[in-house]
Structure formats: structure tokens, C-alpha cells
Amino acid sequence: MRAIALLRGINVGGHKIIPMAKLKTIFESVGFKNVVTFIQSGNVLFNAATNNSETLRIKVEKMLTDALGYDVPTIIRSADEMKKVVSKNPFADEHVEKKTKYYVMFLEKKPMRSEQETVLAMQVKGMAFRFGTCELYCLFDAKFSGNDSPFSNVKLEKLLNQKGTTRNWATTTKLAELAAI
What we know:
Number of domains: 2
Shape: globular
Mean pLDDT: 91
Helix content: 25-40%
Strand order of the largest sheet: 2-3-1-4
Radius of gyration: 16 Å
Structural class: alpha+beta
CATH class of the largest domain: Alpha Beta
CATH topology of the largest domain: Alpha-Beta Plaits
Number of strands: 8
Largest sheet: 4 strands, antiparallel
Order of helices and strands: EHEEHEHEHEEHEH
């Protein structure tokens, strides 16, 4: 299976710095093939012998903890799953470059309906959320900055009772494109 590991919390604000060349070597050292990293935010594409995303997540998280000495929460998506994330874009008409900011929060599992409703009820003017299967699509007016948004990755994780990691739309679409190669 062609897989994508989305690593949470590395190379952010000078913390948990992992050079991409080192990350690639770590993945190759446990037998993953055709390993490619994409930008510094912790995106690794690779071929794995199993199709089980949960098995891969456990293996990758253990491998990274062993190699780095600290936990790196990881979300796994197959190439097909990433393609579906892009093709099911709920904001295709609303997202216009430079007029909106668009992100996808990749989640461990499908949130419960009550958790989804809690998040959706907390939207404010200038933001819109839509849930995919195991994703939260987030569209913001361009005026929003990370500091003035009422939501952060950590807050959303608490509301959804699970881990997640966020990528902007450009990174999301590029990962889908790279995974299809």
C-alpha cells in the first residue's frame, strides 16, 4: 500500500526538529520502500507491506519514539484515502486563493455525532467547518490569523476526544498528487 504518514508537532516553533533526510532514513531503516518526504511539517510518503492503517500507525509511532526519544503522534492515510479527501472537497466553490484560508484536520477516527455537533455549534462569523469521514475541513476568511481564531489543533482534539494533525489545502492536494505517482 502507498501510505502517507502525517506527523503531528514536529518542526514547529523550534521544537522537535527533525531534518527530512533523517526522517527518510528512519523510515527506510525499518523496511519501508520508496520513502519520500514533503516539506518540513512532517509528511512522509512510503510503500508498506500491509494495508492496515492502524498497524502502520502503531509501527511508525514506535519507530519514531525509538529513534528520536520522544512521542510523535501520527495519522496514516492511504493514497486512495487522500485522493478521496481532495475529491470530496466541501468548499470547492467557496475557497478562492488569497480570499480564504483552507485547512484539513486529519483525525484518528470518525468523530461521534455529538462531538461533531459540538464543534459545528462553536463556529463564528468568518469560519466554516465540514466533517468528512475522518477529517475536519476548515475554511477561514483571509483576515483570520492563527492568533485570533477561536480554534487550535489542541482545542479541536479536546472537543473531538482524539488526536489530529492539520495541513493547509495546498499541502493536502500536493500529498494526494504525490501519493498517486
